[in-house]
């Protein structure tokens, strides 16, 4: 048996877990959870994850864990052949953790607000304040990347996998300006060229398509 991932392909956090699993060469039994059908509200799903969120991972021994960052760290700790994606070195791991918390609080939080307004409320525009938060996040990441190829140092880590899923989705509706954020622009290109990221490209296209259609942006 292989671990089961309850997910939605268009979700950036789910994509981050899929990218991590691909990098590890780990096969997952993927089960789509459709919120518009209230599948996350079933008693069975709430028993697995009382918060009713995605992604949720159930390992082959029945152990259940949710939150993409927690899942990614768990998968690497259990299945990776080495610690390059999430080093044991205290300071290296601290930097990765900082980037993961940054992704959650400064980027995904605001992209989630934008998506909810468009998909649930039917807004045809992006709230200017939320847009400014995303642009500010581009600026922070650009600083993080100064003199580096990757978000948390000299090699690919879980920080890149988590950040790229949310930033690539943001870039679909709030394009990164190369002249203003050249480091982010180049980093996105590097990440999207990775085999593990290419494998989740369909989910990115689904996410940006859903938003652009409702914003009536050019596809």
Automatic annotation (TrEMBL):
<feature type="domain" description="GST C-terminal">
    <location>
        <begin position="89"/>
        <end position="219"/>
    </location>
</feature>
<dbReference type="InterPro" id="IPR010987">
    <property type="entry name" value="Glutathione-S-Trfase_C-like"/>
</dbReference>
<dbReference type="InterPro" id="IPR004045">
    <property type="entry name" value="Glutathione_S-Trfase_N"/>
</dbReference>
<dbReference type="Pfam" id="PF13409">
    <property type="entry name" value="GST_N_2"/>
</dbReference>
<dbReference type="Pfam" id="PF00043">
    <property type="entry name" value="GST_C"/>
</dbReference>
<comment type="subunit">
    <text>Homodimer.</text>
</comment>
<dbReference type="InterPro" id="IPR036249">
    <property type="entry name" value="Thioredoxin-like_sf"/>
</dbReference>
<dbReference type="GO" id="GO:0004364">
    <property type="term" value="F:glutathione transferase activity"/>
</dbReference>
<dbReference type="GO" id="GO:0006749">
    <property type="term" value="P:glutathione metabolic process"/>
</dbReference>
<feature type="domain" description="GST N-terminal">
    <location>
        <begin position="1"/>
        <end position="83"/>
    </location>
</feature>
<protein>
    <submittedName>
        <fullName>Uncharacterized protein</fullName>
    </submittedName>
</protein>
<dbReference type="InterPro" id="IPR040079">
    <property type="entry name" value="Glutathione_S-Trfase"/>
</dbReference>
<dbReference type="InterPro" id="IPR036282">
    <property type="entry name" value="Glutathione-S-Trfase_C_sf"/>
</dbReference>
<dbReference type="InterPro" id="IPR004046">
    <property type="entry name" value="GST_C"/>
</dbReference>
